[in-house]
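Reminder: ligand-aware prediction takes two inputs, not one.
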Amino acid sequence: MLTSVIGYPRIGANRELKFAVQKYWRNEITSADLQQTASALRAEHWKKQEAAGIDLIPSNDFSFYDNLLDTAVLLNAVPQRYQKLGLAPLDTMFAMARGYQGEKGDVHALPMKKWFNTNYHYMVPELEAGTHLALTGTKPFDEFTEAKALGIQTKPVVIGPFTFLKLAWYAEGLSSHDFAADIAAAYADILGKFAKLGAAWVQFDEPALVKDLTAEDTALFASMYQTILAAKGSTKVLLQTYFGDIRDCYQTAAALPFDGIGLDFVEGSRSLALVQHGFPQDKTLFAGVINGRNIWKSRCRDVLDLLNTLKSCTKQLVLSTSCSLLHVPYTLKNEPTLQDSQKAYFAFAEEKLAELHHLAQLTENAQAQQDKDYLANEALFQAQRPGSNPAVRDKVAGLTDKDFTRKPDFAEREKIQKAEFKLPLLPTTTIGSFPQTKEVKSMRARHNKGEITDQEYTDFLKKQIADCIALQEDIGLDVLVHGEFERNDMVEYFGDHLNGFLFTQNGWVQSYGSRCVKPPIVWGDVSRSCPITVDWAVYAQSLTKKPVKGMLTGPVTILNWSFPREDIPRRDSVMQIALAIREEVMDLEAHGIRIIQIDEAALREKLPLRKSDWHKEYLDWAIPAFRLVHSGVKASTQIHTHMCYSEFTDIIPDIDAMDADVISFEASRSDLKILDALAAAHFRTETGPGVYDIHSPRVPSEKEITDALHKMLTKLDCQKLWVNPDCGLKTRGKAETEPSLRNLTAAARAVRKELQQ
Ligand code: GLN
Ligand code: ZN
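Here is what comes back for the chain with zinc ion:
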């Protein structure tokens, strides 16, 4: 049985690509240097997969920033404003990714959104009236040729036209139909080129097919692929789907002349039933059975059972990952601090290659159940997992409705809090973190290595906090933060201080562009042994009369940005985490912290892709978990929350039901569209839609922010509007942060004045 990988991580086992790209941005290396690092990484990844015995190795899964952005460039979808800068192609692409502010102009970045329900972000292609989609780029061909020169025959991967059009943004009056014919012609050209280059297979990724599709969607999908596949020559075409099942278009896909269909059997709850109902005998089934999104080993017994069932449905079966391995870290080999007894449970990208190969061999082994590795794997899954805590389990089991209900109700609290805090109209604040300077990072690293004492490190952090408070007072912000200098990452920090988590040293996963995160692993039952943030918050509050927000990460985000357990339901895990964070909330309040922000940055992210699953699979426990965290505080304690990205138009009542007092979220990159929806739904929670984009280094002018506020005030009650950036400032430099925040407070003051006239 052949094996296939949908995509491999590209950032480098030691984040080589990240560091090279950042050096390039700082003008420390040339584009030739950068290209050299990139091609060395590609070669390494291809060779690794070849050595592991993978048959269908992906190419063009590499990207300097993002694959959808690459696809936009490939298809000539470069908006005018970037073309006008007159930059070299690589720099034009980076301008689209990050915005550009310099000699040649001043432009915003493209909007950035989460890739389906993952923590990976893509750049949203923009299609304007003048956009003529056509195959103008060469990246997939270059990379295929590059691999071929190394003696490796790859399977090029390109995001498919349906997904591209579904994720794109359209200028007023335009829709996918205006671009369907052109894009189909471009993909036909892609196939033509690959046939010439001698590619055996091309993989078109169409994850958008796993969402709820309308009849119109299915028709669009079918009509584009009819055109594309009509141009098919010697190269076989694989329709690759992932992150769910394709129940709405399975029959359509089966009837089209694809050579292979890739289905996700890990997250696709109906994939098996679809195939059992009938799989076209002229096609190869690429069975996604190795979970590309989690780090646990597969249970051989279950995978073999599944494969045996599939074998009875189709003669041509290829064993595959469930999605790209982009979402898992590189290798356990880089994890010296994990014990062997722990590593026994895990498979990162490299180990998943070995799993694929091993499973493929087992399917051809009549004695599979006697195989030594099979037996060891089965023994692991049958053994009792370490890390169980009966007290925590009892607490979760004993939760009742009143644990999830804060009293008094929102309206009454709002009155009490207005009297308590006496904040001005349009109060200003930030989301929590301040720039993590080189100095902050290096002191943390030195402390971790034992090069400086705990006392030295604490003194250093206190100095940072004091400077940060002084700066915020000088800038004139109303609700202050301590700056989060003690935290590397908002989830890792809490995981690190709670029982039940495991940490990797190098388990980096790309989040966007050059940004990586190191998700903790939920390993056992979760509990808190002692206060985590209280000392920092209390110290910061002691330095100022203005309120300082206590800053916590919420349970849903901790779970969503960790690798979750697969041996207990997510609901149980999240309630355990919620109980631990609740203890921290109560301690902060007891120590005089009057405003507490519980970030749920990632709450929206794991919303199931199908609407029918939203509540029963997710919101029915995620929203209560948040309520459990804060339901015990006094009426006068103000609870804030923060969510990254504003794509929650459809779940506004659920967000209101979190029952926070104030919510801040991203809005600046998406045209403030959410505001209409908030107004329409009579959103009661006070709201701080971010007034500028912190993902870009540009400094917003006072006028830009004033304009944004004016726009917001046409939709939102001024009594409920807060003024803040759209996310934490930790990734920004000091140089842009201070002027940006000064412009922010100046804008708030100006608009306040207008309102008072
Ligand atoms: N409080 C966090 C910060 O400011 C929130 C980060 C986030 O939303 N991703 O960094
Ligand atoms: Zn955020």
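The chain has a mean pLDDT of 96. The CA atoms of residues 189 and 559 lie 43 Å apart. We will return to this case in the review session.
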